[in-house]
């Protein structure tokens, strides 16, 4: 089971996952890939699309994006139209700018209540979650 799923399973009442786009500047196709994932989200396939993007990060291009969309059985016309939607372009830009302000300098990066996670393990997550819950005086 993926680590984030384990964290959610262990903390169902106190943890929620918020995903923000941070297309790294050194990857020439990262911005387009982020927008494509948001377009896939409009068809309920964000995480599936996202996971395929990360699996294929070294060979992302227009053809690979189309292959992933086809593999996930997305409505091609809707997907292509949504990829051109200015709202999605602005969402990626907004997320990126928030990431810069938060100190993101690599991906993936995880924060728990605004604090950068240093130990990327179930134990590391839980320690930081428990610390934040204690600070907020919230019971698990």
Keywords:
140 residues, mainly alpha, 2 domains, two-stranded antiparallel sheet, 7 helices, 3% strand, elongated
Radius of gyration, taken over Cα atoms and rounded to an integer in Å = 17 Å
Strand and helix order: HHHHHHEEH
Mean pLDDT: 93
Largest sheet: 2 strands, antiparallel
Strand segment count? 2
The best one-word shape is: elongated
Number of structurally distinct domains: 2
Q: What percent of residues adopt helix (DSSP H or I)? A: 55-70%
What does this structure look like?
This protein starts with a helix and ends with a helix. It has a two-stranded antiparallel ribbon. By secondary structure, it is mostly helical. Helix 2 (30-41) crosses helix 5 (76-83). The mean pLDDT is 93. The chain is 57% helix and 3% strand. The chain contains 7 helices and 2 strands. It folds into 2 domains: 1-18 and 109-140, no CATH class; 23-107, no CATH class.
């Amino acid at each position: 089971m993926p680590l984030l799923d384990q964290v959610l399973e262990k903390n169902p009442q106190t943890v929620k996952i918020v995903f923000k786009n941070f297309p790294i500047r050194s990857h020439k196709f990262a911005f387009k890939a982020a927008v494509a994932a948001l377009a896939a989200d409009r068809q309920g396939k964000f995480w599936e699309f996202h996971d395929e993007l990360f699996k294929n990060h070294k060979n992302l291009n227009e053809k690979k994006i189309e292959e992933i969309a086809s593999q996930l059985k997305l409505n091609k016309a809707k997907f292509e139209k949504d990829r051109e939607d200015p709202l999605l372009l602005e969402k990626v830009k907004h997320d990126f700018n928030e990431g810069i302000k938060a100190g993101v300098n690599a991906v993936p990066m995880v924060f728990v209540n605004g604090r950068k996670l240093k130990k990327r393990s179930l134990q590391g997550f839980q320690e930081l979650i428990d610390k934040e819950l204690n600070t907020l005086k919230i019971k698990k």
